[in-house]
TrEMBL record:
Residues of the HTH cro/C1-type domain: 4-58
Protein name: HTH cro/C1-type domain-containing protein
Pfam family for this entry, one: HTH_19
InterPro entries on file: Cro/C1-type_HTH (IPR001387), Lambda_DNA-bd_dom_sf (IPR010982)
Amino acid sequence: MTKLEYLKKQHNLSSAKLSLAAGINYTLLTSIERGERKAYPKVKKRLAKFFNVPEDELFNEDGSLKEIED
């Protein structure tokens, strides 16, 4: 499970709701969630700000999502 999945679950958010609330394109967000794309700095910043966490808590240095233990 990624840290983003964990936070979405904690806040009862779907990818669609998160994309609207954070101002991120839904298709881009789901591609990042599936590991097909890396997050751009702007996307990392928006998601971290939305969840009020540091960017490095959500993302690896290369823009991929960080995994956490279940």
